[in-house]
């Protein structure tokens, strides 16, 4: 019988399909991992922004998690939007039941710069969930929240990546440089060394869901047994091509193209 790699996303929804659980499941599918999902929040959003949010009750989130772990294998998992410490507590307790790499996309700051979770909940996330992670994947604004300082240079990024591991207890950290000018470079610190991943900076307004897609791609590759640096390298390539061939849809920042690596897409668009 064929072995199937199973990847789980625990996050909020995006009815426009570019971010959240929808983006995660598309990414898992394209990278040939079997995708599963647990919904934390039902979000009314599109390419222009968030309209409304309904957070699911903690006991229902717990029920979803248990439904997965009592029946399905989990070879790697990621979290996205988890907005309060009640949700975080449920997830943290459930993690005791699974032995799989845990990737956290710390969705803490909106594109507008507004915080998405309260300071008390941020503290809980840093104290109780970050130490459970195999990898944390913050962008620059999220990194600033995690380490409590401004990130203005690549040297700041490297230092912050090490702080997230050494001071907060993460298994590894990937600080993403998309918000800085200059090189499109990310820094991975795994507790032993710093790895640098650079790609072409693509001039596109259509970047809706890139953080979700990047972390989901890492999760998919880890579910298949790839070593962490290789998983990040391959995921970086995937998200870069997804931006390169992004869709000009909607009135705001359009979605990335989750099937950009398909041969027929390259034949058509290159």
Topology, please?
Blueprint lengths: L5 E6 L8 H11 L3 E6 L1 E6 L2 E7 L2 H12 L6 E4 L5 H10 L7 E3 L14 H11 L5 E2 L3 H8 L6 H13 L6 E4 L7 E6 L4 E6 L10 H14 L4 H17 L18 H7 L1
Parallel strand pairs: 1-2, 1-5, 5-6, 6-7
Antiparallel strand pairs: 3-4, 8-9, 9-10
Keywords: ATP-binding, Kinase, Nucleotide-binding, Thiamine biosynthesis, Transferase
InterPro entries: HMP/HMP-P_kinase_dom (IPR004399), PM/HMP-P_kinase-1 (IPR013749), Ribokinase-like (IPR029056)
Family: Belongs to the ThiD family.
How does this structure look, described?
It is built from nine helices and ten strands. The protein has helices spanning 20-30, 58-69, 85-94, 119-129, 140-147, 154-166, 210-223, 228-244, 263-269; strands at 6-11, 34-39, 41-46, 49-55, 76-79, 102-104, 135-136, 173-176, 184-189, 194-199. The protein has a five-stranded parallel β-sheet, with helices on both faces. α5 (140-147) packs across α6. It is globular, with a radius of gyration of 17 Å. The N and C termini lie far apart (38 Å). The model has no long low-confidence stretch (mean pLDDT 92). One of its GO terms (biological process) is thiamine biosynthetic process. Keywords: ATP-binding, Kinase, Nucleotide-binding, Thiamine biosynthesis, Transferase. GO terms for molecular function: ATP binding; hydroxymethylpyrimidine kinase activity; phosphomethylpyrimidine kinase activity. It catalyses: 4-amino-5-hydroxymethyl-2-methylpyrimidine + ATP = 4-amino-2-methyl-5-(phosphooxymethyl)pyrimidine + ADP + H(+); 4-amino-2-methyl-5-(phosphooxymethyl)pyrimidine + ATP = 4-amino-2-methyl-5-(diphosphooxymethyl)pyrimidine + ADP.
